[in-house]
Amino acid sequence: FAFLFNLPLNISSLLASTIKSQIHLNISSLPSSTITTMENPADTTDYTDIYAKHSIEPINPLDSIVVLDGMPIISPEKQSKLFKALTKAISAKAGIDVSDDQFYMPLNQGKSDGYIFLTLKSSNEANTLINKLDDSPFDSKHTFKINKFSQIDAYLNASDEYTEPTFPPHNPKDHLKSWLNDPRGRDQFLTHLADDVQLNYNNRNNPPETTHSKHNWTNSYVSFSPQGTYIGTLHRQGVILYGGPNLSQVSRFAHPNVKLIDFSPKENYFITWSNEPIVLPPPGSSTLCPFSPEDQGNSLAVWDIKTGELLRTFPTTPGKMPWPHLKWSGDEKFIGRLVPGQQISIYSIPDMNLVDKKSLKIPGVVDFDWCPWGDKDAQNAHSGKGVRENMLAYWTPEVENQPARVTLMAFPSRQILRSKNLFNVSSAKLNWHNQGDFLCVQVNRHTKTKKSMFCNLEIFRLREKDYPVEVVELKDIVTFFAWEPRGERFTIITQSDTSNSQQMAPGVLVKSCVSFYQLDKTKGDFKLLKTLDNKSVNTIHWNPRGRYLVLSTIGSQSKFDLELWDVDYGMDEKKEDIAQIAQVEFYGVTDIEWDPSGRFLAASASFWRHQAENGYAIWDLKGQEVVKTSIEKFKQFLWRPRPKTLLPKDEQKKIRKNLRDYSRTFEDEDAAEESNVSAELLTQRKMLVNKWNEWRKLCREQLTQIAAENATGEDDTTVEEWVDEIIEESEQVLP
């Protein structure tokens, strides 16, 4: 056998022992009744059930040996170099450490035959190697083809007779984006009230249309995936994802006492977190547990949504935990984890191996974030031209004589693209533009005496050469910053420094200013458009389509106004004018959210924040109320996100050009809908009038019948008349 396959003596001896063990296993696999009869013919007791219960599947020693096919054909002089490259590839891609003495390369007439034997520690390692490396490239000319040696042995002993394979019946799956097929193009929203969760279609003129209602659907909160494909519900045992027209279960993930979840940008993966560390069930328990002993004590888990596979677990860093704790790159190729003050560890997806086997050692690092994946990046990736490498930004504070620094880095090349030194820094915050065009670093600085604070905005322009940085100097503190989606403007809320002033009473708002800035392409800096003084607002919510925004106050006990502003109000007259177009009010507002189309605005008051007048309301862009309802124990309101459009840029421009022609169709549909509403109202009123007329007719008939009965008989009715007469009247003054 060793001569036929040209194997070394150690493998041939292993095969010989395997054959002996197979003979023993064949004997031991005989029926229990046969074994019993051989040992003691007089004993007729049947032990079949006991043997079946405690039977152990025999271990095949060949399962730990794999054959690496598709390898380069080389001479013996290059063997060590090839083994070194294989060791590096297997360690990097499969996470398995091997040595040269585990390889065996057969030679034929002084050259290899293109395959190599590799002896691993166990069958599980062999399975891992096959899953990670099979059909993956080794170099530009060779691809891994990996099989277990036991499989090759099975191929040699395969029958020559053809047996037609059997296929399981096809079970069609639900269309996970079925809600997009609505003929009227309506958006959906989800409401969570008490123990019920409802999924509704938003109507412009009619009340919302409830499509699904679930009771006790979640033990905590509900979450949509970024493109609206999945609805995640949290339970004591783990997370369940639902989707499709019937909201059927898509997959479930066992993570006991899960508290938070976070989806990846393209919905292929997601993260779960529990405040209780992972504990394995006792041996012999029937509890479903996807975790291994290496996962015990961790609290973060990364999952593959499509396969349901657990990719890796992580511990949480000590101290206050930011969320999301693990941050996704825009293209989902990497995931980063911050160890405050020490390093940033970046792992590749889906193998979850540390990239280049080393972290980014950054002493004092406070925070980092990935550059978002914009529409331009997606188009370039699709065409394969001008693809921009992933970027991340991080900042470090001042340490001794070293200034604070903001750094922009390309990854995985780890090239420093731009850095900026900062002085007298108290804190910093990274604000990315949603298309990855700009990065604003909000730097809170103190004076040399450290008695007062002010703010600078360091703005990186990421689509231009050498990544120029513009500085916007302010005298006050920035309390809120928001980029215009798909635009070149941003809005800030500023307040004077109140850190050393007398503590304000709870619920009392400090007067603030709202400022609008826009990029001036001719000068290459950001210019101030307008400032609104003496405002009592603390949040900004831009319309997802740009142009419109809402200034609001959340968390106040005395102010509940929502101001709708149009940043391009004077666009038709070619003027840069910003104007307020509406103002609405919603008592106790805790959350504000635009719908994906940007045509409707929703505000809600959650029972989780306060217990007074919970509910939600929806308005259109003009501030006209669409629906407003007060619901006891109302908890959550969520618009269902939409995926990005599949229309190319030229088709979108064509639609915008002919928008008036399309708008006529929609206006006719709206008019028809309003007329239907009016017709239904008129029908209901007519029905009520008919009922009233029938009742009057019945009353008249009854009166006529009574009058006829009285006319035929004698009238014996006695009429009594009472007359009041004043006999004496006197007045008396009481003491």
From TrEMBL:
Annotated Translation initiation factor beta propellor-like domain residues: 420-636
Which of UniProt's keywords are assigned here? Cytoplasm, Initiation factor, Protein biosynthesis, RNA-binding, Signal
Its Gene Ontology molecular function terms?
A: RNA binding; translation initiation factor activity; translation initiation factor binding
Query: Which coarse location class describes where this protein primarily resides?
Result: cytoplasm
Short name of one Pfam family = eIF2A
Please provide, in alphabetical order, the Gene Ontology terms of the cellular component aspect for this entry: eukaryotic translation initiation factor 3 complex
InterPro entries for the chain:
EIF3B (IPR011400), eIF3B_RRM (IPR034363), Nucleotide-bd_a/b_plait_sf (IPR012677), TIF_beta_prop-like (IPR013979), WD40/YVTN_repeat-like_dom_sf (IPR015943)
The protein's location, in the record's own words, is:
Cytoplasm
Q: Which domain of life is it from?
A: Eukaryota
Using the record, list the residue span of the signal peptide; answer none if the entry has no such feature. 1-16
Matches recorded under HAMAP family? eIF3b (MF_03001)
Protein name from the UniProt record: Translation initiation factor beta propellor-like domain-containing protein
Question: What is the species listed in this Swiss-Prot or TrEMBL entry?
Answer: Wallemia ichthyophaga
